[in-house]
Amino acid sequence: MKQVRNTHAKTEILNLINGSEVALTHSDIQKKLGDLCNRVTIYRVLERLENEGAIHKIVNIDGVVNFAKCSGKCTHEQHFHNHVHFNCKECHSVTCIENAIPEISLPEHFIAQEYNLIISGICPKCADL
Question: How far is it, in rounded angstroms, from Cα 12 to Cα 8?
Fold first, then answer.
């Protein structure tokens, strides 16, 4: 197994993602980090964190990639993200809804290994406006 490298950029990016209630885009992360590192470094760190099982990718309804923390069950070998992702049409936030796990029934001979379910609508924060 490859040795896990911890750099200042990696630590800060992971802290940002772990501390966020919503999934963050690359652009969100870059804005929050300021001049700490360049965009290419951010891409590399995000890829490394995903490979290590620390974060997962969510592609929102607009095709933008978001990153969220993994539950404690994920490893570098396998991610467990068969849960709902909610994409707000107003603020464009993406939220993992861990306690809403849909049951998927596929036709014979199809084997599901993972899925990405996006529900779009209005989040509680925007509904209160």
Answer: 6
Euclidean distance between CA atoms 3 and 22, whole angstroms? 29
Query: What is the Cα–Cα distance from 73 to 27, expressed in whole angstroms?
Result: 27
14, 7 Cβ separation under 8 angstroms: no
Q: What is the pTM of this model?
A: 0.79
What distance lies between CA 15 and its chain's CA centroid? 13
Residuewise pLDDT in 10s, the chain (129 residues): 455 567 899 999 999 999 999 999 999 999 999 888 899 999 999 999 988 888 988 888 888 999 998 876 665 565 556 678 899 999 999 988 877 767 778 999 998 777 778 889 999 999 886
